[in-house]
Amino acid sequence: MEDLQWPQGEQDIPSSVCSLPCRAGERKKVVKGMPCCWHCEPCDGYQYQSDEFSCKLCAYSMRPSTNRTSCQHIPIIKLEWHSPWAVIPVFLAMLGIIATIFVMATFIRYNDTPIVRASGRELSYVLLTGIFLCYIITFLMIAKPDVGVCSFRRIFLGLGMCISYAALLTKTNRIYRIFEQGKKSVTAPRLISPTSQLVITFSLISVQLLGVLIWFGVDPPNTIIDFDEQRTINPDLARGVLKCDITDLQIICSLGYSILLMVTCTVYAIKTRGVPENFNEAKPIGFTMYTTCIVWLAFIPIFFGTAQSAEK
Questions:
Q1: Crossing angle for the helix pair 147-184 and 121-142, to the nearest 10 degrees
Q2: Distance CA 242, CA 229 (A)
Q3: pLDDT number for residue 6
Q4: 230 touches 240 (CB < 8 A)
Q5: Which residues are 226's β-sheet partners?
Q6: Strand partners, 39
Q7: Cβ atoms within 10 A of the Cβ of 82, count?
Q8: Tell me: the pLDDT tens digits for 208-220?
Q9: Measured between alpha carbons, how far apart are the two ends of the chain, in Å?
Q10: Residue 276 confidence (pLDDT)
Q11: Top-ranked range on mean pLDDT: pick from 15-19, 89-93, 236-240, 299-303
């Protein structure tokens, strides 16, 4: 035996078998007509080795183990507070909340001064409340999704902007009606008192709340685990995303009424752009609405056009 020489310099005696046993995660593909011979084929993708001759697909919420002999649950992820996608919005929201509280405190301190009165303090407080809610929604969007968080997301998602635009629309509409009436007669138009302005504003806001209430009735809030967005070709990188059961279309629909108020307010801002300087709030409102329209025109296609991601 010591004098035997094997091809390619092999020292060990060759095994007298047609096929070697397959490794874990590989199935035997028997050669036709030769029951003792087979080829070893690895189970690929999301398949695991169910027995020595076959591979099966794991359940949709699972992926194969490291050696592909069983299945394991796909890890569930959510947006974490320490993520840059969360830290930066929270930082900006905190700055906005501090600024809003400072302005509100200043208004309260000088509540009876002529400047605050002339600014329409009642609607100003409503506007500041809407801005405050716009910043608060940041924390709800980052919080771990559950039924309560998802419910508050639906309520406050469009409410902050709705309150803000309703107050601005009521302001610009009031200025427009005053000057239009002034061209016809010296009598003041109806519904320009602070109480009337608040009633109009809250009537506009109630439409948004009614829409949310209908949304709750038709589709109760719930959480889902989305495996589609992060289902990669490599099973080791697959992740499930825990999120509220709210589609992109539902988000836009929730914001749709706010967009309508914004466009209407912009129309009135254009109509009141030529008012005297004494009514100087009309021009800043106009500038605000023009820039807001540009932001919204950019936001909608970007929101729908971006690739799906866990952070979105």
A1: 150
A2: 11
A3: 81
A4: yes
A5: 241
A6: 29
A7: 6
A8: 999 999 999 998 9
A9: 70
A10: 66
A11: 89-93
Structural tokens at position 130: 């809407």
Residue whose pair of structure tokens reads 């988000």 in the numeric block: 251
What is d(CA 260, CA 257) in angstroms, rounded to the nearest whole number?
5
Strands (E), the chain: 26-31, 34-42, 47-51, 54-57, 62-64, 71-73, 76-77, 223-226, 240-244
**What is the per-residue pLDDT across 232-279, written as a single tens digit (0 to 9) for each?**
888 888 899 898 888 878 888 888 898 899 889 888 888 877 766 666
- Surface-to-core class of residue 165, CB atoms within 10 Å of its CB (0-12 exposed, 13-18 middle, 19+ buried): buried
Q: Which two tokens stand for residue 281?
A: 């709030």
Reply yes or no on whether the pLDDT at 79 is more than 70: yes
Q: How many residues are recorded in the chain? A: 312
Residue whose C-alpha is closest to residue 204's, from 157, 266, 258? 258
Q: Do the beta carbons of residue 115 and residue 278 sit within 8 Å?
A: no
Torsion (CA) 102, 108, 109, 111 in degrees, nearest 10:
140
pLDDT at 248: 78
Which residue reads 């109760």 in tokens?
Answer: 220
What pLDDT does residue 74 have?
A: 92
Number of other CB atoms surrounding residue 75 within 10 Å = 10
Name the token pair of 37.
């011979």
Say how far residue 122 (Cα) sits from the centre of its chain.
Answer: 32
Residue 86, pLDDT above cutoff 70 = yes
